[in-house]
Amino acid sequence: MKILIIGASFAGVYCSLQARKLYPEAEITIIEKNELAGFLPNGLLLYLQGNYERLEDATFISSKQLQENNIQLHLNETFQTVNAQNKQLITDKATYIYDKLVLATGSTQHSTRIELVEEEIFHYKTYQAAKFLLPKIEQAQDITIIGAGQAGLEAASVFVELGKQVHVFETLDYPLFKYFDQAFLAPFISAIEQIPNLTMHFNQQISKIVKNEQFEVNAQQTEWKSDLILTTVNVHPTNVAIEEVQVHKDQTIHTDAYLETSQKGIFAIGDLIKVPLKITNEKMYLPQISNAVRTGIVAASNLVEPTTPFEGGLRMIGTKLFGWYLASVGLLEAEAFIYPHNIATKTVNIPVSFVSKQSIQCKLIFEEQSHRLLGVQLLAKENCLDLINRCGWAIEEGLTLEEVMMRDFFFHAQFSNHLASITELLGSDDQ
Question: Residue ranges of the Pyridine nucleotide-disulphide oxidoreductase dimerisation domain (predicted)?
């Protein structure tokens, strides 16, 4: 069996590794348009923070590791078209015959709404982009970031640490809207608005960017000049133009529960597809690494016959921004309209531990009648990120608040807060 995978990021790589385990005799080939496999989407930022000695080290897997698993890797090769009837794929360098084809080309941050010269506006998801951008970041004194989502604020946080003057433009009236309710973020927003070399521009739609000696940014209420522009707008699927494969209006590829497309023998995974939100089972676009990895593994399991449906995700994130730790999983209060029953919320401050002076601001979203947990948001000045995994597990298990609090967890006065959590959560009034 010849398995051909287009894309060597998380989805494609984990699909290939699982396929090698399941089909030891298969011929597995990955085609990647970039010059490096497995580059981390935030690899540039990790390098700038000193986590890697070289930019090219910011990967989750190496070409050598793939070769050791008898997986052929073709870099610097660009997919062009597919003849599904003849099971033939054409790139800019060769023509391939396949038995099973897996599309894992990921997503892009290129803006489709801003008038600009595209090659002059930069993002950093790929190794080539990061390598090209690195000297420009080092030279720039003033950097403008378009988009105040997770990627945009992570970049802004690192650039502020480097002493850059940073401007962040966001079309909505608060950041991180996909993962947090606005009122919950009030302490965080208030704090970052006091950072001297950071300026947040909310409710600002950028209409045009012109490159002269500097970049000239034209927005609804302001004009600004900057040494460097980064786009970190909401990602969208890369264009995979295959006539036989059905796509949705948002250009995500239609797949069945087993991740097979409308064309038999062709699968789509990762940021190319919608996946079910486990809480409602409604399909949503959730371009996250966890979903990329798991869809890759599931697709590999279904290449010969459909045995393993993909169950979906919970939209879980955790990050550190400007010295704050933020995490979220599941439903937001602002999304109550997509849930079939009434919801309620509780917002409390939980001590990090019995000996710590720091606390975790915690918001719970739950079903009003049953108290079934639906969503959690966390905000703290100390690392609370691992707690979100426990919350995600509780949501997946369908536990109520009372059941969560009665689960057995370890206790140590210096490191845990479980007893305090029980008192706070079960004793608080609904918000």
Answer: 322-417
